[in-house]
Amino acid sequence: MNDLDNKKINETINTLHKIFKIIFIFFIILLIYIILLINKELKITNLLLIILKIISPLFIGIFIAYLLNPIVCKLENKNIKRIFSCLIVYIIFILLTSLIMYLIVPNLTIQIKEINKSIPEFIDNTNIFINNLISKISLSSEFKINIKSFLNNYILLITRDFPNNCLSIINNTISFITCSILSIIISFYILFDFKNFKNNIFILIPKKYRRKLKKLLREISQYIFMYIKGTFLIVIIVFFMSLISFSIFNLKAPIFFSLFNSFTNIIPYIGPIIGAIPIVLVSFMQNTKTGIIISISLVVIQLIENFIIQPILLGKTMKLHPVTILISLLIFGYFFGIIGMCIALPVCAIIKSIILFIDKQYKIFNFDKIKINEGRK
């Protein structure tokens, strides 16, 4: 066989490989479309959410055990028996959680009640602010009236629903605390027998795949742990920066809005905007000066978080393209709301790791070769 024949064979193989890639992508798109259609007809998402809600203590328990296991292992390495290591870690964990709840919850409840009492004053201040703002804009009187009416109705809707939303948040918090207590009990038993728990999972997998799968899970575990640790520290830092700023500049309910601002920051890109809108609105409802100062402080906090804190604590942990992140936010936000948007980034990173692992094993897309070629260019 001469070089020309070899060249033709290679070209044929490459062509077939490209066709296979196109078919594979088409199959994935078709599969997603079928899943969406089935979900629309049978409402599987709602059913899954109900099931997940029922068994959520188990998942939270596994999650807590997963987070605390490295600390328990460190104590084990210092010749402390696992049962005592687990007890020490859980006593510290429960004491810290109880202390935080004791310090925050009573003040948070008082501040929410204060906001409810201040709603009429907020509405009056907002009307004055809107009237002053619109009077300075050179538009037709009819258009000004329409803008004023729209803004007043929107503010009234927010303030009217605010007490119910706060009550809903409190009820959900109580429900979460109850679920957490059950989760902590489950997690203790899982953590105490963590090695056997992992081994029992791998028993279900054929022996020839166990080694590779363990390697994949270790890689995913590193991603998740780094992300959770970094995100947790960012939430704490943003909370304290917000609390200091809001307290100094006399924003009403500083603890409530600091918590809200810090937790919405978990959502990439759009989270800070979601967190800032109600805070800015409330600050302007108090008075214009407070509104301007709080708006500036939110921008400063966001700049510090984006350009100093996040690069140090997270760096390029997830290694995801911004477009990928935005698409994942849209998809998870559509199906699972705010919670879905919070978990979109780590879940997307896990999916990416699995796809790269499958590609490495079966050479479907040859991502490794693509990276090498891009590096040469």
Overview of this structure, please?
With 377 residues, the chain is an all-alpha fold. It has a domain at 21-54. It has 12 helices and no strands. It has helices spanning 3-42, 44-54, 56-77, 82-135, 141-192, 194-203, 207-248, 254-264, 271-286, 288-313, 322-362, 367-376. Helix 4 (82-135) runs antiparallel to helix 5 (141-192), helix 4 (82-135) crosses helix 9 and helix 7 runs antiparallel to helix 10 (288-313). It is globular, with a radius of gyration of 26 Å. The model is unreliable at 372-377 (pLDDT under 50).
| Unreliably modeled segments | 372-377
Mean pLDDT: 76
Large-scale geometry: globular
Distance between the termini: 33 Å
Helix content: over 70%
Largest sheet: none
How many beta-strand segments?
0
Count up the helices. Answer: 12
Order of secondary-structure elements: HHHHHHHHHHHH
Strand content: under 5%
Structural category is mainly alpha
**Oligomeric state, counting identical vs distinct chains:** single chain
Task: Determine Rg (CA atoms, Å).
Answer: 26 Å
